[in-house]
Specification:
This protein is α/β, with parallel strands linked by helices. It has nine helices and eight strands. An eight-stranded mixed sheet has the order 3-4-5-2-6-7-1-8. Strand 4 and strand 5 form a beta hairpin.
Length: 212
C-alpha cells in the first residue's frame, strides 16, 4: 500500500475507511492496520518541534498505552538504539507495556516485532535496537544505564520519585534524547515540582499544556 493512498484514506470519515478496509485484499488491509500515523487521532500523535518530555495525560479509554507503544516503534525505526520502558511494577512493564493488548508486541507487524526475553527484561529489534524494562519500585536499577529514549507508564503510580531522577540522569545518549510519559493524572510531591521546572525540560501535553 503506497503512502499517497494511505494519506487519502486518513482524510476520509472513519465509517468510509472501515468500509474500504473490508473491501481490501487481506494483505492490504493488514498493512493499513499497522500504519498508526494514519489511523491515530491527531491528539494521539507526538508533538512537532523540539522537546525533551512529552506528557500525555488522558483518562481511561484514550489509548495511552497504544500511543506509547507506537511511539517506541516509530523511534526504533527512526534510529533510536537504547530505550527504557519504565512502569510502576515489573508486572506492569511486562503485562501492559510489552505483552498487553496495546503493548509493543501486539502493535508490531511480524517483520518489525522484536524478540522478547523476559528473563533479561529485554526486547531486541532486528536493526539492533534494545529496550529494557524497569520497575519504578526499584530505582537503583536505573542508576547507571544510559538511554536515548524512554517510555514511562502511569507516573502517578510510581512510589519513589528517585526512579524518575535516576531515569533522567541516564537520558544522555545521542543528540536528542526524548521521553514519553503517559498518565491519567500528575503525581504529587517531588514529581510534580520536577515536571513543572522549565529549566530541566519542556513538557507538552494534549490536555494540560505548560509554558516552555
Amino acid at each position: 500500500m503506497t503512502a499517497p493512498l494511505l494519506e487519502q484514506l486518513a482524510n476520509l470519515p472513519k465509517a468510509e475507511v472501515d468500509a474500504l478496509i473490508r473491501a481490501m485484499a487481506p494483505g492490504e488491509a493488514n498493512a493499513f492496520e499497522y500504519h498508526w500515523r494514519y489511523r491515530a487521532r491527531p491528539e494521539q500523535l507526538p508533538p512537532a518541534g523540539s522537546w525533551r518530555v512529552w506528557l500525555l495525560m488522558a483518562g481511561r479509554g484514550f489509548g495511552k498505552t497504544r500511543c506509547g507503544a507506537e511511539w517506541v516503534r516509530a523511534e526504533v525505526k527512526a534510529g533510536r538504539r537504547r530505550i527504557a520502558l519504565v512502569a510502576p511494577t515489573a508486572a506492569d512493564a511486562r503485562n501492559v507495556m510489552v505483552e498487553g493488548d496495546s503493548g509493543i508486541l501486539a502493535i508490531s507487524p511480524d517483520r518489525e516485532r522484536p524478540l522478547y526475553e523476559p528473563s533479561k527484561r529485554r526486547l531486541t529489534w532486528r536493526n539492533g535496537a534494545v529496550a529494557t524494562t524497569y520497575s519504578a519500585d526499584e530505582p537503583e536499577r536505573l542508576r547507571g544505564p544510559q538511554h536515548d529514549a524512554a517510555w514511562c507508564d502511569e507516573l502517578a503510580a510510581w512510589r519513589y520519585p528517585e526512579a524518575w531522577d535516576m531515569l533522567m540522569f541516564g537520558m544522555r545518549l545521542g543528540a536528542d534524547p526524548r521521553t514519553v510519559v503517559v498518565a491519567d493524572q500528575l503525581p504529587l510531591g517531588g514529581f510534580g515540582r520536577g515536571m513543572r521546572n522549565p529549566v530541566l525540560m519542556r513538557v507538552l501535553t494534549t490536555v494540560w499544556p505548560l509554558s516552555p
